[in-house]
Amino acid sequence: MSRWQYFVKRLLLTVPVLFAVLTFLFVMLRAGPIDPVAARLGPQAGAADRAQLRERLGLNDPLWEQYVDFITDFITFNFGQSWVVQAERDILDIAINAAPATLWLGFWAILLPLFIGIPLGFYAGLNPNTLGDYTASLGGIIWQALPNFWLCVIALAVLRRTRNGGGPFGFDWYAFGPDFASRNLSITGTPSLEWFSTTDILFLPVPYVSDWTALAIDIKLILPAAIILGSASMAAELRIGRTAMLETVNSNFVETAKAKGLPDRVIVWKHIFRNALIPLLPVITSEAFLLIGGSVIVEQIFNINGLGRIFFQALTQGDLPMAGALLFLFTLIILGLNILQDFLYTVIDPRVGYDQ
Amino acid sequence: MPDPANGEAVESTKRRRLLGLLGGGAAVSLAGCSDQEPSDGSDGEDGEDGMDGEDGEDQGPTNADKAQAAWERAVDNPLPEDEELRQEAYIEMEEAARDDAVLIPLYHGLTELFWYDYVDVPLTGALGKHWQQLNTTTVEGKSDLNLINSTFDELDPIMSTDTASSIVITQIYENLTAFPNGVPEIENQLLEEFEVSEDGTTWTFTLRDDVQFHDGTEMTAQDVKYSWRRTVESENSERAGFTLNQPVGLGIDAETDDDGNVVPDSLAVEVIDDYTIEIQLTGPNPDVLDVIAYSSFSVIPEGYVGDIEGYDGEVTHQEFSTEVANGTGPFELDVFNVDEDVTVVRNDDYYGEVASVDAVNWEIIEDSQAAWTYALEQNADRFEMPTFAYEADAIDAEADDRGRDVGTYGPAGELEEEVNYLGLSEISTFYFAFNAANTDRAVRQAIAYVMNKEQIVEEVFAGRGTPAYSFLPPAIWPTGNDGYNDFLDDYPYSRGESDPQGAQSVLEEAGISSDNPVDITLTTYESEVFQTAGELIRDLISGTGINMSLETSQFSVLQGRGEDGDLEMYSLGWIWSWPAVPYGMFQLEPLNTRTSTMPNETNGFYLDWQTALNEEAE
């Protein structure tokens, strides 16, 4: 079986998973404790209104018909309208509106563990039981232990106190980089993401950065939230990176390589690094999952109008179609990432997957 | 008791019931409809034998009789010259409820507003800041006014049931009348003058002739008719009852079809000429001018939205909800990013005082940490304070003649400068109530004796609430501040302290003691205040012969059980949508508290107080 055959097979395997998820959502929506009509109309609606809405939502159709409709709608991304959170608005529109802020947050929250957590972990693994190792490991454990919501509250409290040079050594987060105070900007809020334009190159629109200041503002706005959101994954990657490194360093092929007289640099980068990545890969891809879950609370506290906050509202206000649609989208993302992960496995370690 | 003189009241039960249906699911604020009633105590009332000696055994009128008679007197005399008679009647109802202890008020909501010194904003009245137009607000050194708001998703006045949306709607759309700055004194807005017919059922409104919509077209009587028709004919309307019902609404005549829907164009609103409009009510209504100030009666241009028969609409309803607006107010809608921010810009052609700020911007923030950060950054010029940052000692304020606390706050905590402070008691009441059929009057009175409202407000809200002694909030007390103070002085259940001895003595008279105890269950909805209050009361009352058990249920479950008559003691609240006494008092009419016919024929509190009426008992 070639790599591509494996890939296609893997892709096909996700189809039943998707159906299982859809069926589960359907059961939750239709058979769960929340009556769609009551959730939409509130407790004081009259019987006539209820009957009318019941008919309009198609709840009087036979169950199998509802099931088929539901599956077709979701697969074609026709999620219908929100009930409560943004009543009567198209769910897909709402999601598309909110997605950029979450992507921007997620992008920075992934960069952080990748470029801080993994190198630190590898450093610690290469220099085990030194002061540097202890510092990095201990720091990692502490980071992981601190809950996100607490970090968010503390970060806001600390940062807003630095206004007008009120921080230690006169540090002022507002004046650091693009000046927020003089622009009347808040350190909370939704990034506007209006710093790029598109230009036509060979009739294809290509985005480019047209406003570097706006870019800097958006980065500064998102950075505290992203650091906190990425902190748990960063710590996890640091610790697993260290273990993976340690294990690989002590394996036989490294000894062989040393005996061959290879320089340290080649041993580390060519042999150790690649092998140490194998256990790290699932950690990195499952991070996406953590980010989706974690963004709920981070977006709420930093007042970022993203998918996480909308998901939170949908859940707390009983907006079933919205929560269902978002769950479906999250499922798609996770499934996609899983496929990507399996594919990357075959690149890093050709023994994995299709070879047997 | 059947009310012969009062065909109106009986007929109106059906319409009143509509009101109950209107609540909608949205946030608490504007809607009054947060409560309903309880059960049918089929076994008759036992506590009604005047053990505190006020009314003789079974011959004299009971408190319920008094309340019923007073309500009927008020409803039967709706003309303006009977104002005083109605005021007295409502106070009698209040006294009857107090003496029977069927309803024990706990607190009135308190709003506290803080604003920086560079802002000059008129003091907000008891109705709240969502009634305040911001054209008279000035900001020194900034061109815009920046505020914080909560999430909302509609700008259609007939859909709006929450405070957040009405804060913005008030800037864009206007009504015939208004309560300027939320002070509960009605004034003309788009109205020039009005006339009432002798019998009080025909009202003729003359409109201002110098008003333009934001798109430059002139406002005429046709627009008013169209807008009011939308409140009853549009499927988007959440407030049809406020147009059709009496006495808790306007009560405009209309035909309904077999399904109970209003027949298109049958609403009795007649255009006399371009600036004159006449409405026909189903009965006289003393509160017409107050009711038409409510945001669902806002005027939009005729044919703007096509959601009623005869109009195609210039914009779709979805656009009208969040994207476009065209009113007569001092500000025009600029941008509305749902869940992010809203901006309105100055209307330079406003007929009244043109705003001094270029624009008003609301950042939409739900989280209290984010909101507090935003306020400290001076990104919000006026703000409310989360309890974690609040220091009661930092307030330096005095009561003004409207009972508001006006003064300054700070510097305190993170707030490094002194800011202006306004504390105002809202027109809302949160209370404990009893199903009279299931509880003994002595028990109810004993609970009233031990309840120390000051202490509860202090413990739960850090003092951020007003202890309540009457169902009607002081801001709309029929006989004004002095009358309210007299009522307070007469409060029989040891005001401001917890009085177990008083409780003991009423219980002893009724033959209840720790050897012969009574069980009672307090059902609260999920509210920290009431749960804490319940625990305090349970602890204080233990040992006197009352064994109180506490339970918590969801709001909707509590309502359902109330309507089934399945509650003994419960907690709920009522928020006035306009400052009229009957809009609230109707729920205390004993005949309207019969739970066995709820929610269809009756819609009062869940008291089953009718079981205490002499006639019922027989």
UniProtKB/TrEMBL annotation, chain A:
Keyword set, alphabetical order: Cell membrane, Membrane, Transmembrane, Transmembrane helix, Transport
GO biological process annotation, one example: transmembrane transport
Q: Where's it found, cell-wise?
A: Cell membrane
Under the heading CDD domains, the entry gives: TM_PBP2
Name all ABC transmembrane type-1 domain ranges: 99-341
Would you identify the family this protein belongs to, as annotated?
Answer: Belongs to the binding-protein-dependent transport system permease family.
Report the membrane topology from the UniProt record. Multi-pass membrane protein
Locate the coiled-coil region(s) and give their ranges. none
List GO terms (cellular component aspect): plasma membrane
What name is this protein filed under? Peptide ABC transporter permease
> Which ranges does the record mark as transmembrane?
105-126, 138-159, 212-236, 280-302, 322-340
Highest taxon, organism lineage: Archaea
Q: Which Pfam families match?
A: BPD_transp_1, BPD_transp_1_N
From TrEMBL, chain B:
Q: Does the keyword Transport apply?
A: yes
Q: Which UniProt keywords apply?
A: Signal, Transport
Its GO biological process annotations read: peptide transport
Q: Which SUPFAM superfamilies match?
A: Periplasmic binding protein-like II
The answer to whether keyword Transport applies is: yes
Positions with biased composition (Acidic residues) = 37-58
What are the residue boundaries of the Solute-binding protein family domain, all occurrences included?
Answer: 185-585
Gene Ontology molecular function, alphabetical: peptide transmembrane transporter activity
Where in this protein does the record put region Disordered? 29-69
Cross-referenced InterPro entries: SBP_5, SBP_5_dom
**Assigned protein family:** Belongs to the bacterial solute-binding protein 5 family.
Its recorded name reads: ABC transporter substrate-binding protein
Native species of this protein?
A: Halorubrum salipaludis
